[in-house]
Specification:
By secondary structure, the protein is α+β, with helices and mostly antiparallel strands. It is built from three helices and three strands. The chain has a three-stranded antiparallel β-sheet with strand order 1-2-3, sandwiched between helices. The protein starts with 13 loop residues before the first strand and ends with a helix. InterPro entries: Retrovirus_Pol_polyprotein, RNaseH-like_sf, RNaseH_sf.
Length: 136
């Protein structure tokens, strides 16, 4: 397996991935879009209605537009991971694994409120990532 290049500055490598489909929530969400900066470990998690490119791009551009400008200024190029090979996007996949466990702890019996808890669970994940970064 080829190791991804070491990151030395923010926004040098951003991981984007989708989890789902999950049980449809009362607000119509079925997917979780995860965006993480591999250097700073800044994490952003969004409930999403679908997994199409337009929807993902809309969330990414609307929520990360300032970061994209920074990327352009610093001439950062995008890398893509191969579908079906999650090891190429390891940090993002680890977040998904942790989030799945946390969602299972806080979901209701109908499994249709997972999106309500995402902001809180995202904060917990950020804390876990920060703690891990301080240990290394």
């Amino acid at each position: 397996m080829i190791e991804p290049p070491e990151t030395t500055k923010p926004f040098q490598r951003i991981g984007i991935d989708i989890v789902g489909p999950l049980q449809k929530t009362t607000s119509g969400k079925k997917y979780i879009l995860t965006i993480i900066d591999h250097f700073s470990r800044y994490l952003d998690i969004h409930p999403n209605q679908d997994e199409n490119a337009e929807s993902v791009t809309s969330v990414f551009v609307c929520d990360w537009i300032l970061n994209m400008v920074v990327c352009k200024l610093f001439k950062i190029t995008k890398l893509h991971t191969t579908p079906g090979h999650p090891e190429g996007n390891g940090r993002t996949e680890r977040v998904h694994h942790s989030m799945a466990g946390m969602i299972n702890l806080y979901i209701n019996n109908n499994h249709n409120n997972w999106d309500v808890n995402l902001p809180t669970l995202c904060c917990v994940s950020i804390q876990q990532l920060s703690s891990h970064q301080q240990e290394t």
